[in-house]
Amino acid sequence: MAVKNLIDGVREAMLEEMARDESIVLLGEDVGKRGGVFRASAGLIEAYGDQRVIDAPLGESGIVGVGIGLALNGMRPIAEIQFADFIHPAFNQIVSEAAKFRWRSNDAFHVPMCIRAPFGGGVHGGLYHSQSVEAFFMHVPGLKVVIPSTPADAKGLLKSAIRDDDPVLYFEHKRTYRLVRGEIPDGDYTVPIGKARLVREGKDLSIYAYGLMAYFAEQAADALEKEGISAEVVDLRTLLPLDREAILASVAKTHRALIVHEANRTMGAGAEVAALIAEEALYELDAPIRRLTGPDIPAMPFNTPQEERFMPGPETIAQAARELCAL
Amino acid sequence: MAKTKATPKAASSLSPEDVRRLHRWVLLARTIDERMWVLNRAGKAPFVIPCRGQEAAQVGWGAALRDTDFVVPYYRDLGVALTRGYTARQAFLALLGKEEDVSSGGRQMPGHYSWAAHRVISGSSVVTTQVLHATGIALASRLRGEDDVAAVALGEGSTSQGDFHEALNWASIHKLPVLFVIENNGYAISEPQCKEMAVQDVAERALGYAMAGVTVDGTDLFACYEATYQAAERARRGDGPTLIELKMYRILPHSSDDDDRTYRSREEVEAHKDQDPVEILNRQVVERGLMTAEDIAAVKAELQAEVDEAIAYAEAAPYPSADDMFRHVYAD
Given this model, what pLDDT does residue A1 score? Predict the structure, then answer.
């Protein structure tokens, strides 16, 4: 076992899966010779050639639409969208087509496709290289939405996403790529879709987060511990389907819920988690449910002070936890 | 299910039996289409998307493919579906949303023909998405070294969508074995072709993709068949995709919910009477000495009986249970 970057987990998952299963192909912009603009597919074209690692023309609907066709004809495509911000031209293909094929054909067809996209901000990406788009897809039955927060999960969850028989949106927070380091187990393993990860146990409040925010929540919990506040951190890992049992089990223990995401607040993933707790565990609560999220403004600003203000971080998470525990 | 790699013959080599089979499919499409419209007007069917005027083109391009080729139809392609084994019973089961509907178990609106066992791919009602699916299907066949062709249909209105461009671009870059079949019936609901594009023929656009393009009389079954046959052979040889434009006139409104009197004159519709592909085909088979007027009348009577039986069957068939809608959101 070696300590690696999160992006290494992504790359290793693709490298190993493509060796295991010849029906897996990768298509996307700059994924071949360049190895991806983030280098997530570095070395793949050398290993598997340009027939299986396909530099696609610049058009997201085409990448996903062609991917669907590949999936319908016996392949397992991994479609890379270079930035989640650019996924919207493919929204129709994802929502109208990939998500509905199995259901609308009464199980005659299905689309085993993994759509990977880097998302999130804090990297001076400005409006169109920082967005968090996961909530759009959480609203669509037929899809799965997965977001890793550790290198080990990045590999194990991506392997599960590639092997899944339904379309999976796999969002990788781009700031975690080389910020979050951790051990990646050697050899083949998977992490199941639909299961949250208990990052650390606590008794005073539950912090629910995913992606970069799960990493920050853990740091916040470390700081809170020194102040005598015991925070439990739950990394949701899968937003669709949510791990209802894990969410409810944690709040039943701590009686306080803080939900953190970088995506803007209104109708974000946190709204669904909050609604679940309100519907199923209201009488467990000792304080109102609290959300700490990105603000409801159109996008991430480019300049430093505004970008910093937009992003939740370890300090603001800890502060929100303190306030919640004071209630 | 008959799965054969046998390549269809060129149009000039079709036997009398072959032609009678194609003729029967065209007349069956027309008979089904007429009766669906009647059921709708009688309040027995909520929605119909007619194929009238396009039957010969549909049967022509559908029959020119191998059974193992992939067909990606659009929501008007009853004639194509018939060439892939679809029956009158299936048409009316789908029309009434019954459980036994092979396309979707009654989930989709009628006209969304699909049948996995016969490589007829499920489609949606948002137009043009399917063109990229066909391109990906062809790419998969190519990657595995198989010689199956993917043929996808769309209306000329759909060519305004970006997915049309993306698909043709992909297919031409990779010289994929895919046929883009434009059923140009002159209208996108109310908008005539002059409001949809500046070019005279959709096939002109093939030039921009370094791709073969051909415009064909869509009321001539044999011309549609031959153009498709030739394009499929080219695709199988590795010579890349073809943009095939089949031109005809949409005889009925866009759908049973449309009223075409609000945007086109009765005189215009009347003036296109001579473009009815069924009449044209009936003339062709008589002129070729393959059938007599009596033969045609006998086929018509036979098909009416077949459709009567199919309607009765579909009406008596059960709906899916309400709870069934919760199934197949994901793999079990």
Answer: 81
Which residue of A24, A25, A51, A66 to mutate against B (max B Cβ within 10 Å)? A66
Residue B49: per-residue pLDDT:
96
Average pLDDT, chain A: 98
User: Among residues B263, B264, B272, B313, which one is catalytic?
Assistant: B263
A 10 A CB-CB count for A31 gives 27
- Rounded to 5°, angle at Cα A289 from A284 and A290: 150
> A209: closest CA among A300, A148, A285, A153?
A148
Cα A312 to Cα A200, A207, A214, A287, A317, distances in angstroms: 20, 13, 11, 21, 7
> For residues B99 and A95, is the Cβ–Cβ distance under 8 A?
no
pLDDT for the residue B3? 58
Q: Residue B6 — very low, low, confident or very high, per pLDDT cuts 50/70/90?
A: confident
Looking at domain A2-184, its CATH architecture is 3-Layer(aba) Sandwich (3.40)
Nearest to A65 among B132, B327, B328 (CB): B132
Residue B41 lies in a domain: yes
Start-end of CATH 3.40.50.970 domains in chain A = 2-184
**CATH classification of the domain holding B239:** 3.40.50.970
Q: Is B11 on the interface with A (CB under 8 A)?
A: no
Beta carbons of A108 and B135 less than 8 Å apart? no
Q: State residue A143 phi and psi, 5-degree precision.
A: -100, 160
B331–A166: do the CB atoms touch at under 8 Å?
A: yes
| CA closest to B70 among chain A residues | A73
Q: For residues B153 and B71, give the distance between their C-alpha atoms in angstroms, rounded to a whole number.
A: 8
Chain A residues within 8 A of B141 when measuring between CB atoms: 73
pLDDT of residue B2 exceeding 60: no
B132 and chain A: CB distance < 8 Å anywhere? yes
Q: How confident is the model over A196-202, as a mean pLDDT? A: 98
| A197-326 topology per CATH | Rossmann fold (3.40.50)
The SS3 assignment for A162 reads helix
Residues in chain B: 332
Residue B5 has pLDDT above 90, yes or no: no
| DSSP-based three-state secondary structure for B33 | helix
**How confident is the model over B27-42, as pLDDT tens digits?**
999 999 999 999 999 9
Share of residues in chain A with pLDDT > 70 (%): 100
Q: With contacts defined as CB-CB under 8 Å, which chain A residues touch B129?
A: 65, 92-93, 96-97
**What is the number of domains present in chain B?**
1
Residue B4: inside a domain: no
Q: How much is the average pLDDT of A15-41?
A: 98
Domain that holds residue B97: 14-254+263-317
% of chain B with per-residue pLDDT over 70: 99
Mean pLDDT of A182-204: 97
Mean pLDDT along residues A149-170: 98
Catalytic site residue B250? yes
Q: Is the pLDDT confidence value at B1 over 60? A: no
Average pLDDT, integer, range B170-185: 98
Among A72, A103, A106, whose Cβ lies nearest the Cβ of B121?
A72
* Closest by Cα among A53, A100, A94 to A77: A53
- Residue B184 pLDDT: 98
Distance from CA of B102 to the nearest CA of A (A): 8
Give the B window 61-120 contacts with A, CB below 8 Å: 70, 103-105, 107-108, 112, 114-116
Query: Where does chain A hold its CATH 3.40.50.920 domain(s)?
Result: 197-326
The CA–CA distances, whole Å, from A244 to A274, A275, B213, B245 equal 11, 11, 54, 52
